[in-house]
């Protein structure tokens, strides 16, 4: 199986996307399911965070929202179900998924910038790249990764020893893998009370194991 991971900026006329303006104080966290129905409408199940009362008010005012419910999980987060009429560009995107015989890997996560990080999975590169060529121009798409499908990227850390996971956590938290880099081997070594050569060796082994799994 092959997969392409893309960052998608939904069009501004998406009825659900009106939830996530700077004025709404509501943030999208992830989408658990998104299905195009036979009548051309769609249903969506997701998780949002922020002002849930404001979210209810916005959805109530949307003419293209046919029904919705928000179940609070805590004071600032909840599950949202929406049944709505999509704009033509979103409907076409969901139709393409069916026409090309590919599927989205759920959940779909949202980035801090408000984009959706979607992994499209298919049998061949041509299948998954074919859908990208036909995505309507109103939807901004940038390709992040093309390669073999990884069932659960989070499970890559299972390849590491406890000590390696500890070092990786510190490296990530300190900004070692940021661009530009915000930490050195020395910074990580100081936090962990290890020698610089030891940290360097561990990071090389961590990267070798993870990159080796990605290439397999």
How would you summarize the topology of this molecule?
Layout: E1 2-9, E2 26-36, E3 42-50, H1 52-61, E4 65-74, E5 77-84, H2 88-99, E6 103-104, E7 108-110, E8 116-122, H3 125-134, E9 140-148, H4 162-174, H5 185-192, H6 196-215
Antiparallel strand pairs: 1-8, 1-9, 2-3, 2-7, 3-5, 4-5, 6-8, 7-8
Helix pairs in contact: 4-5, 4-6, 5-6
Fold and architecture overview:
The N and C termini lie close together (12 Å). Helix 4 crosses helix 5 and helix 4 (162-174) crosses helix 6 (196-215). The protein is 34% helix and 31% strand. The chain has six helices and nine strands, in the order βββαββαβββαβααα. It has 216 residues and is α+β, with helices and mostly antiparallel strands. It has helices at residues 52-61, 88-99, 125-134, 162-174, 185-192, 196-215, and strands spanning 2-9, 26-36, 42-50, 65-74, 77-84, 103-104, 108-110, 116-122, 140-148. Strands 1, 2, 3, 4, 5, 6, 7, 8 and 9 form a nine-stranded antiparallel sheet that branches. The protein is globular, with a radius of gyration of 21 Å. A hairpin with a 2-residue loop joins strand 4 and strand 5.
Number of helices: 6
Helix content: 25-40%
Q: What general outline do the C-alpha atoms trace?
A: globular
Rounded radius of gyration (Å): 21 Å
Uncertain residue ranges: none
- Biggest sheet details: 9 strands, antiparallel
Average the pLDDT over all residues and give the rounded result: 86
Beta-strand portion reads 25-35%
Amino- and carboxy-terminal Cα gap = 12 Å
Output the structural class. Answer: alpha+beta
Strand runs, count: 9
């Amino acid at each position: 199986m092959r997969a392409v991971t893309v960052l998608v900026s939904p069009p501004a006329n998406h009825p659900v996307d009106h939830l996530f303006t700077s004025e709404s104080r509501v943030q999208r966290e992830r989408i658990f399911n998104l299905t195009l129905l036979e009548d051309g409408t769609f249903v969506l199940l997701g998780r949002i965070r922020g002002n849930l009362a404001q979210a209810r008010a916005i959805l109530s005012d949307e003419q293209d929202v046919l029904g919705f419910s928000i179940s609070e999980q805590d004071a600032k987060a909840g599950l949202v179900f929406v049944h709505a009429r999509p704009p033509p560009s979103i409907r076409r995107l969901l139709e393409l998924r069916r026409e090309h015989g590919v599927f989205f890997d759920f959940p779909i996560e949202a980035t801090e910038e408000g984009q959706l990080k979607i992994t499209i999975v298919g049998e061949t590169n041509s299948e998954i790249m074919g859908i990208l060529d036909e995505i309507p121009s109103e939807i901004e798409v940038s390709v992040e990764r093309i390669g073999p499908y990884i069932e659960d990227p989070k499970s890559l850390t299972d390849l590491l020893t406890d000590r390696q996971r500890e070092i990786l956590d510190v490296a990530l938290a300190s900004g070692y893998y940021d661009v530009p880099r915000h930490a050195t081997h020395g910074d990580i070594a100081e936090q962990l009370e290890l020698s610089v050569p030891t940290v360097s060796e561990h990071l090389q082994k961590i990267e070798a194991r993870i990159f080796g799994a990605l290439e397999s």
